[in-house]
């Protein structure tokens, strides 16, 4: 079913929305009634009342879909701490992550040790 909404007037669109809301409400009520019937049948098969069936599961916490997919709301990540600093130029720093900076590569090639640049 396809309706071209661009051709409808405001009144027709409002009428269509009311009809859709009414149909949606009827569908939800029918699905709820069906779910209740299924629950009652399951309870009957197990030999318990539907209330007892629901009461036993109400105490247990189960992760819902929203909670399972909820992302950590930590905000902005802090920059990594500086682990190495050039003694000749304090603006040259390295966190120890990623590729070694050129100033450190050059110093290491000249025979310096990585520990010489460690920040204490």
What would your notes on this structure say?
The chain is mostly helical and about 120 residues long. About 50% of the residues lie in helices and about 5% in strands. A two-stranded antiparallel ribbon has the order 1-2. The longest helix has about 35 residues, at about 10-45. The model has no long low-confidence stretch (mean pLDDT about 85).
Percentage of residues assigned to helices: 40-55%
Strand order of the largest sheet: 1-2
Radius of gyration: 33 Å
The rough form would be described as elongated
Average the pLDDT over all residues and give the rounded result.
Answer: 85
The main sheet comes to: 2 strands, antiparallel
Reading the helices and strands in chain order gives: HHHEEH
The DSSP helix count reads: 4
Strand share of the residues?
under 5%
Describe, in short, the structure shown.
With 120 residues, the protein is mainly alpha-helical. 49% of the residues lie in helices and 3% in strands. The radius of gyration is 33 Å and the shape is elongated.
């Amino acid at each position: 079913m396809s309706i071209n909404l661009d051709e409808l007037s405001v009144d027709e669109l409002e009428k269509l929305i009311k009809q859709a809301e009414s149909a949606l409400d009827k569908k939800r009520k029918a699905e709820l009634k069906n779910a209740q019937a299924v629950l009652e049948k399951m309870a009957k098969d197990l030999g318990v009342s539907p209330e007892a069936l629901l009461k036993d599961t109400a105490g247990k916490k189960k992760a819902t879909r929203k909670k399972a997919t909820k992302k950590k709301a930590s905000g902005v990540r802090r920059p990594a701490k500086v682990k190495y600093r050039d003694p000749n130029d304090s603006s040259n720093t390295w966190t120890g992550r990623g590729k070694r900076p050129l100033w450190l590569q050059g110093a290491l090639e000249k025979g310096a040790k990585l520990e010489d640049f460690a920040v204490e």
